[in-house]
Amino acid sequence: MTDAPVELLWAVKESFLRYLGNMPGSQIGLGGGAEYTESREFRFTGTDQGERFAFTGAVRFTGHGGMLEVLLVEPVIELSGDTGALTVIDVDNPPTDPPARVTLAHLERQAADDGLVFATQLADAGVALFNGVYPPGEPLAPLRIVTAPDRGPRSPS
Predict the structure, then answer these.
(1) CB within 10 Å: which end of the chain, N or C, has fewer?
(2) d(CA 6, CA 107)
(3) Rounded CA gap, 108 and 143, in Å?
(4) What pLDDT is attached to residue 48?
């Protein structure tokens, strides 16, 4: 286990983000250190634990007066060779310790010059997270895992 600092960069699904962007009153909320980057990706920070990458943070997409809500909390990527799974905390069921997780996407490693890059497809269990709008196997945005840059010490506010 290396526990090296890494970042997950993921645009989720471009058409979904465009849909939200065109919807009056829609919102994207960030928490727990998740950020939205200039490259239009969500950034989660975490650690490389060998074939497992654990990240902190949450992204909440809302619209239609609360009828649409997609919540992605504390993503984890588990790999086996060139394939893997992206899971998030299951917020639709009562809390457990440790938190129950749901498989959001299946991953397949792609060639990359920098970091790890994966093609993503919506998993069966991930369909419910998107309110049944997308079928299992629907392509999602590629995701990247990169070495976290040294941001240096933060000065007190």
Answers:
(1) C
(2) 18
(3) 10
(4) 93
Distance, in Å, from the CA atom of 9 to the CA atom of 117, rounded to the nearest integer, reads 10
Torsion of CA 148, 107, 15, 131, to 10 degrees: -110
Which residue from 51, 54, 96 is spatially nearest to 73, judged by alpha carbons?
A: 54
What ranges do the domains of the chain cover? 4-147
End-to-end CA distance of the chain: 34
- The pairing of strands 68-73 and 42-48 is unpaired
Helix (H, G, I), strand (E, B) or coil at 17: helix
| pLDDT digit string, tens, across residues 55-105 | 999 999 998 877 888 999 999 999 999 999 999 999 888 888 888 999 999
Which residues, in sequence order, are CB contacts of 154 under 8 Å at separation 6+? Answer: none
Q: Which helix (H) or strand (E) element contains residue 60?
A: strand 58-63
